[in-house]
Design brief:
The protein contains 14 helices and 27 strands. Strands 1, 2, 3, 4, 5, 6, 7, 17, 18, 19 and 20 form an eleven-stranded mixed β-sheet that branches. Strands 10-9-11-15-14-13-12 form a seven-stranded antiparallel β-sheet. The chain has a five-stranded mixed β-sheet with strand order 23-24-25-26-27.
C-alpha cells in the first residue's frame, strides 16, 4: 500500500495564501522631526507597518533581539487616539485579521535574531487563532510559551454588577512568546514575595553592601581562588549580629507595613538560620572561631561555600548554624502568570493621554529585560503611544518603532522627546534612575516607485528624484545602496565585485565603452536605465542592461500605500466598563 501523504493540523481561512508580493520601499529621513543625538541608531518610522517591515528586511534581517507588539485585538470596536469610537459596530472578520497578521509575523520572524524573542500581547478575541498561526510560522510548540497578565482589578461598582449577574469578569490578557530555537535563555526579573518568612531575623552590622556583595560572589563562584576566599572570610569577621527588632528600634519602626519595607531595604544584611553539620574545610583563623558574634566561611568537599556563625563547636561531628542571605530568598520568579504589575490608572503615563490603548512601562520593561541586553535592537511595529520607544531608551537599547496613525506625531514624538530631555518622571524613570539622553531619527515610508499615468501605463513616480530612484532600484535588485565617493556609477553592491548603476539619461554605446574601461578585472555592472541604444544590449559580458520600469513589472505589487485594513488599536476594558461587556 502506498504511503498516504502526511497531513498536519493547521489553521485555514478565506484568503490564506493570497498574500501580495510586497514592494521593497526605501525610507526617507525627515530631519524636522529627528531629535537628540545625531549619531543615534534609534528609528521612529511613520508609515504602513507591513511595508515598513519589508523596507527593513534587507538591512535588519536576523539582527533584532527583541520584538514586542500589541496588535489590534479585533474586539468589535474601532477607537481613535483619544479613546473615541470611530465607527464600525463589529470587528473585522477573523479571516481578515489573520490575513493582516500572517505576512507581518513572517517578516518579524525574518528580522528576528536566531536567539531573539517575539512577544505579542493579545486578549481572548483572537488568542486561539493567533497561537495556531504562530505555531505555523515558528514550526513547533517548543518555540512558543504563553504568559497570562493581570490587566484589571475585580473591584468597582460595575465589576460588582458583572459578578452579581453571574458573568465572569475579564481580568487578564495573554503574551505569547515565540522564538526560533526553543524557549530558553529568558531571565525574567524576580519579584518580591508578598511577605517574609519568620526565620529572617538576624541583622548584621559592621559591613557595607559592597562587602556583602563581594562575599556572595565568592560563595557563588565554584572557581574562587584561595586569596578571594580569604578576603571574603576577613569581611565575615567584621560582621556583628543582632536581632532584627533592634533595627526596628533604631529606625523607630512600628507598623507592619513599615517593618516589611525596612526589611526589604536592608535585605542584603538580614540573614536566615539553617542548621548544618560538619565535614567542611575551615577557612577562618581558629583563634577567632569562639567569637560568638561574627562569622566565617567554610568550604564543603564539593566546593560549596557557606557563611557560618561563630561560637559553635568546630568539631566536624557537631552541628552549627549556616547563615543564608535573605535577599536571595525574598524574591520569586513570576512564572507564566504576571499579576504584580500595576496596569490600571496609567492613562497619563509618559505625559500623553492614550485612553484604554496604552501598556504600562513596567510590563514592557520586563519583556525587554528578559529578551535583550544593553545595545541590542528592540522593535515595535505597532508602537501606538510610544511606550516601547520610551522604555527601550531608558533601558539603553537601540530601538525601531513603527506607527501609521497621527499619534506618531501627537503622542510618540513628544513622549520620547521628554524621555530624551530627562523631563519624564513617570513609569520606570525612578527605578532606573533615568536622567535623559539618546535620540531618534524620524523616517517616512517612500511612496510607491511606480504608479499609473492617465493612459493606465506604469511609469516611474514623479516624486522620485535621481537619488531616491538609485536607492530604490538598488533595493529592488537586492543591492546594498552605498554610493562610491570617487566612482559615480558605483551606487551599490551585491557582492565585493558586483555593482549597480541607475541612470535617467539615455545610455549610448560610447557611455558603455567608458564604463567598460573603468571596470576592473572580475567586476560586473548592472545598469538600470529608462532608455538605451539597441547596440548596447549584450555588448559586454560583464555589463547587463535593464529597462525601467519594464524590468520591475510583475515583481511585486506597486501603487498600494495601505495594508492596514483600517484597523486601529482597540480598547483595553477597565473594571468600570466591564459591566457593559456582553
Amino acid at each position: 500500500m502506498a504511503n498516504k501523504k502526511q497531513q498536519k493540523l493547521e489553521l485555514t481561512w478565506i484568503g490564506k495564501g493570497e498574500e501580495p508580493t510586497l514592494e521593497p520601499r526605501i525610507l526617507i529621513e525627515n530631519p524636522e522631526y529627528s531629535y537628540g543625538d545625531p549619531k543615534t541608531e534609534n528609528l521612529l518610522i511613520h508609515g504602513d507597518n507591513l511595508l515598513v517591515l519589508k523596507a527593513l528586511e534587507q538591512d535588519y534581517a536576523g539582527k533584532v533581539k527583541c520584538i514586542y507588539i500589541d496588535p489590534p485585538y479585533n474586539t468589535g470596536s474601532r477607537i481613535d487616539s483619544d479613546g473615541k469610537e470611530v465607527g464600525y459596530e463589529d470587528g473585522i472578520e477573523h479571516s481578515e485579521w489573520l490575513s493582516m497578521m500572517k505576512p507581518r509575523l513572517e517578516l518579524l520572524k525574518t528580522l528576528l535574531h536566531d536567539d531573539g524573542t517575539l512577544a505579542i500581547q493579545i486578549d481572548d478575541n483572537e488568542f486561539a487563532r493567533l497561537y495556531l498561526l504562530l505555531l505555523e510560522v515558528f514550526n513547533s510548540q517548543k518555540n512558543l510559551k504563553t504568559i497570562c497578565v493581570k490587566m484589571s482589578e475585580a473591584t468597582g461598582v460595575k465589576m460588582a454588577h458583572v459578578v452579581n449577574s453571574g458573568r465572569i469578569p475579564k481580568l487578564k490578557e495573554y503574551i505569547i512568546i515565540a522564538r526560533k530555537n526553543g524557549i530558553k535563555n529568558l531571565f525574567v526579573e524576580r519579584i518580591p514575595k508578598d511577605k517574609w518568612d519568620n526565620e529572617y531575623k538576624i541583622f548584621a552590622k559592621g559591613v557595607t553592601k559592597k562587602e556583602v556583595t563581594f562575599v556572595k560572589e565568592i560563595m557563588n563562584n565554584i572557581d574562587s581562588t584561595e586569596k578571594d576566599i580569604e578576603i571574603a572570610d576577613t569581611i565575615c569577621s567584621k560582621m556583628q549580629f543582632s536581632n532584627i527588632n533592634e533595627l526596628f528600634e533604631i529606625e523607630n519602626i512600628k507598623s507592619e507595613e513599615d517593618k516589611l519595607r525596612v526589611k526589604y531595604e536592608n535585605s542584603w544584611r538580614i540573614f536566615r538560620d539553617v542548621a548544618t553539620t560538619g565535614g567542611a574545610k575551615i577557612i577562618a583563623d581558629k583563634k577567632r572561631l569562639s567569637n560568638s558574634n561574627s562569622a566565617f566561611l567554610i568550604v564543603t568537599p564539593k566546593k560549596k561555600k557557606y557563611l557560618i556563625k561563630s561560637g559553635y563547636n568546630v568539631d566536624a561531628a557537631q552541628p552549627r548554624i549556616k547563615l543564608l542571605f535573605a535577599d536571595d530568598y525574598l524574591t520569586i520568579h513570576p512564572g507564566d502568570f504576571w499579576q504584580d504589575i500595576k496596569t490600571t490608572g496609567l492613562d497619563n503615563e509618559g505625559g500623553v493621554t492614550f485612553k484604554k490603548g496604552k501598556k504600562p512601562e513596567a510590563l514592557v520593561k520586563r519583556i525587554i529585560g528578559m529578551a535583550s541586553n544593553e545595545g541590542d535592537i528592540v522593535l515595535d511595529s505597532f508602537i501606538g503611544s510610544g511606550t516601547t520607544g520610551a522604555v527601550a531608551t531608558k533601558m539603553n537599547r537601540k530601538w525601531i518603532g513603527v506607527e501609521m496613525g497621527p499619534h506618531c506625531f501627537t503622542h510618540c514624538i513628544p513622549r520620547i522627546k521628554n524621555v530624551i530631555d530627562g523631563r519624564d518622571s513617570q513609569g520606570i524613570t525612578t527605578e532606573l534612575n533615568w536622567q535623559g539622553g539618546g535620540g531618534f531619527k524620524f523616517y517616512e515610508l517612500a511612496p510607491s516607485l511606480l504608479n499609473k499615468d492617465k493612459y493606465d501605463n506604469w511609469v516611474i513616480n514623479k516624486e522620485y528624484n535621481p537619488t531616491m530612484l538609485a536607492a530604490a532600484m538598488a533595493k529592488q535588485e537586492g543591492f546594498t545602496y552605498a554610493p562610491d565617493k570617487n566612482t559615480y556609477w558605483k551606487q551599490g553592491y551585491s557582492a565585493e565585485q558586483d555593482f549597480i548603476f541607475t541612470t535617467t539619461q539615455f545610455v549610448t554605446v560610447e557611455l558603455l565603452d567608458q564604463l567598460q574601461d573603468q571596470l576592473q578585472e572580475g567586476e560586473s555592472l548592472l545598469i538600470c536605465a529608462k532608455k538605451f541604444q539597441p547596440e548596447c544590449r549584450n555588448k559586454f559580458k560583464n555589463i547587463v542592461l535593464k529597462k525601467i520600469p519594464k524590468m520591475l513589472l510583475g515583481k511585486c505589487e506597486f501603487g498600494k500605500e495601505d495594508y492596514s485594513l483600517n484597523i486601529i488599536n482597540p480598547p483595553v476594558l477597565t473594571e468600570e466598563e466591564l459591566g457593559n461587556e456582553e
